[in-house]
């Protein structure tokens, strides 16, 4: 699966994601761009996006996009808070029954 790490997610989280093709905002040249600028392009490049940005569903018209958005709802976007959410987030990537926007909460 092709996975995009939004710039709200620490880049080094990619080292903990196995079995997926992972690209970051900096790698793609999208760092600093608004979601509305890169999401229409990202839907053709990636299967899913991993983000900590809780406002994306309210700021973007996601219904017209073909990309799964996984929102990590941790107490911060520090890697120590995101790592416990990663197994459930990776499981959500492979579940076709889940909706387009998936929220992952701490255990």
> What's the gyration radius in Å?
12 Å
Q: N- to C-terminal separation?
A: 25 Å
Q: Report mean pLDDT, rounded to a whole number.
A: 90
Biggest beta sheet summary = 5 strands, parallel
* Number of helical regions: 5
Record field, number of beta strands: 5
Approximate strand percentage: 15-25%
Which of globular, elongated, flat, extended, rod-shaped describes the shape? Answer: globular
| Portion of residues within helices | 25-40%
Structural class: alpha/beta
Could you characterize the architecture of this molecule?
- β3 (48-51), α3 and β4 form a beta-alpha-beta unit.
- 29% of the residues lie in helices and 20% in strands.
- The protein has a five-stranded parallel beta sheet, with helices on both faces.
- It has helices at 25-28, 35-45, 56-59, 79-82, 86-93, and strands spanning 2-5, 21-24, 48-51, 68-72, 101-104.
- The chain is built from five helices and five strands.
- The model has no long low-confidence stretch (mean pLDDT 90).
- The two termini are 25 Å apart.
- It is of the alpha/beta class and 107 residues long.
List the SSEs and their pairings.
Elements: E1 2-5, E2 21-24, H1 25-28, H2 35-45, E3 48-51, H3 56-59, E4 68-72, H4 79-82, H5 86-93, E5 101-104
Parallel strand pairs: 1-2, 1-3, 3-4, 4-5
Keywords, separated by commas or semicolons:
about 110 residues, alpha/beta, five-stranded parallel beta sheet, 5 helices, 5 strands
What's the quick description here?
With 107 residues, the chain is of the alpha/beta class.
């Amino acid at each position: 699966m092709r996975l995009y790490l939004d710039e709200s997610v620490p880049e080094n989280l990619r080292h903990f994601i196995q079995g997926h093709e992972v690209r970051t905002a900096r790698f793609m040249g999208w760092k600093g761009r608004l979601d509305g600028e890169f999401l229409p392009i990202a839907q053709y490049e990636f299967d899913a996006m991993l983000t900590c940005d809780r406002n994306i569903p309210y700021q973007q018209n996601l219904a017209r996009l073909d990309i799964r958005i996984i929102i990590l709802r941790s107490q911060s976007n520090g890697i120590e808070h995101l790592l416990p959410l990663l197994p459930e987030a990776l499981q959500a990537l492979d579940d076709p029954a889940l909706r387009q926007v998936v929220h992952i909460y701490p255990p």
